[in-house]
Each structure stands twice: as C-alpha cells, then as structure tokens.
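Hey all, quick one. A colleague (J.T.) asked me to put the zinc ion job into the tracker so the inputs and the structure tokens live in one place instead of scattered across chat threads. No bug as far as I know, just bookkeeping. Sequence used:
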Amino acid sequence: MLPEKIHIKRDDTVIVLRGKEKGKTGKVLSINPEKKRAVIEKLNIIKRHTRVKRGERGSQEGGIVEKEASISTSNLSLVCPKCDRPSRTGNKKTEEGKKIRICKACNEMIE
Ligand SMILES: [Zn+2]
C-alpha cells in the first residue's frame, strides 16, 4: 500500500488546528511520513530533564533540555506564503508535466 500523501513538507509554514498550540504558526523542521507527524519550530516544546551523573570526575551538571515534540500532520494546515492564509492545497500539472502544489484560496503556486 502506498503511504498516504502528506500535504505539508519541510520548510513550509503551517498553522496548528487543534491541541494546546492551536492557532500558532511555525516552520516545519522535519516530517515523519510513516508516523504522519511533523516537528514545527518552537511549537509543542517539551522539557526533558537530563540525568545528573555523579561519579568518577565529580558531579556533572544535569539540566533541562527543551525540544520540539512532533505534532500529528492531521492537526496542521499549510499557511499559504502568497496570501498568508491557512489554505488547502491542490495539485496541478504544469505544461512541462511537473507536479506542483497550488493554494486553493488564491490559486498561486506554492513552493
Ligand atoms: Zn494562497
């Protein structure tokens, strides 16, 4: 079975539709197509406590690392760079036969 097409890709600007980050926008840092999840810059931050190791060379600093957690792509919508609105995208073929994405709101090509 072919993996379902994901409507967003790296470096897209997206808006979060649901969840605690609802209404916020950010840039897509990475996408996991198998899990259908994307990591968005500065969104859905989780804090990870790193372990404090004690031993041989004295105590090592433990701390909190902030990291973006992934968000389900079904909760994300692309923000059109042309009309600056959350938009649905459509696919279109150019005259050269190249597949492009277009914004259904303003009909501009998104790349
Ligand atoms: Zn648009």
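Adding what we noticed when we looked at it: The chain has two domains: 1-79, 82-111. The mean pLDDT is 88.
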